[in-house]
Amino acid sequence: MNSYNFFAERPVSNYRQHDKVCIFFVILLWGIGMSALLFCAENSAQRIFGDPFYFVKRQLVSSVAGFLLFAGFATVNMKTIRRILPLFVIGVLFLCLLAFVPGIGMEKNGAARWIRLPFISSFQPSEFVKLAVVLYLANLFDKQANIVNPEEKSVFPAVLGLVIFVCIVFMQKDFSTGIFVFFIGIILFFVTGAKLSWLIPFSMLAIPTTFLMISLEPYRMNRLIAFLRPGEDVQGINYQIFAAKRAINAGGFWGRGIGSNLTKLNGIPEVQADYIFAGWAEATGFLGVLLYFALLIAFILCAYKIALSCKNRFAAIGAFGCATVIFIQSLLNCAVVGGVVPNTGINLPFFSSGGSALMVTLAMCGFIVNASRMELDTDLITESLHGVDGYE
User: Fold this and answer.
1) Which residue from 73, 92, 138, 168 could staple onto 318, CB 3.0 to 4.6 Å apart?
2) CA distance 339 to 275
C-alpha cells in the first residue's frame, strides 16, 4: 500500500514573530461566538436560571482560562512542550479516570463525563483528550521519522495510545467524542506516511463494535431513528432537529436580527449548546451563515499553511491535527443542525456554551500560532507527498 507523508524531514530553525493573521481570526471567531451566545441563549438562561446573562458570564470566565492556555501554548518553546508532554498526557488520562470516582465525578443522564473542581461547577476532561491525542501522535510520528533502521520503526505505540484514549472516552459513555478522536487519529496516521495495512483488520473489528455500542444505548438508537425518519414524531425524538430547521428557515436571507426573542419563538432545546448554529442562522440569515463559513475557512487555510510550511515536524503535525479537529468538528456540528447527519453531541468550536470545550479550542489555536513562529521556507511547501518510506 502506498505511503504518503506531508511532513518530510525539516531542520529546526530559529523562531520568528507569531502569525498575526491567525491570531486575528482566533479573536474574531471567539468574539462572534460570544455575541451569538449572548443573543441566542438569553431566553433559555432567563427561563432556567433567572439570569439572561448566565451562559455568557460562565463563558467569559472560561475564556480567561482559555486565553491563558492560548498564550502558554503560543509562547512556550516547542522543546519545552515536548518535555512536559508525558505529564500532560498522563494528567489528561488521570482526569478522565477521576470522572468515575464517587464524590469527584459527576454523572448526568447516565454518563460519567464530568468532574467537580473548586470554583467551577463541572469540568469535562474528555475534551482535552482531543489535544492530548494530537500531540501524543505528533510526538511519536516525529520520533519514528528520525529512526534510520526500518526494522525499528513501529506503528504499535501510536495505535496503542490511540486505543487507550478512545476506550476511556467510551467508558464515560461519550460515544461521539470517542469516534471523533479515533477518526482524527486515522487522519494523522495517513498524512504522516504510516502504512495503513493494519487498518483493514482493525476496521473489521471496530465497525461491528460501533454498531453494537449504538444498539446497547436507547438514546443512541433514538438519534439514529430520528435521523432515518425525520418527518415522524416531530413533537418527540425529532423535535430538536425540527425546531432547528424551523429557526434556520425563519432566518431567510437577511436574518431576523439580534434581540428579537429568537429562541422564545422557535423553542430550540439546549440552543446554547450543540444547536447554537441554528440560533445564529435565524438571527443573521443566509448572510450570517456565509460570513461564518468564510471566516472558518479563512482561519483553517491559514492554519494549514502554517502546518505545511513549518520546519519542525512535531510542530507541523501538531498544528495540522489541531486545525483538523477544529475544522471537522465545526462542519460536523453544522451538519447535525442542518439534519445532514445524526445528532452526535459534538459542540461548535468558539460558539457553543461549555468551558472545557472553549479552553481546549483556544489551547489548540495557541499551538497553531506557536508553530507559525518557525521560520518559513517556501521550498519546503512543495515537497513531494510520495517516496517516503512508511512504517508498520
Assistant:
1) 138
2) 11
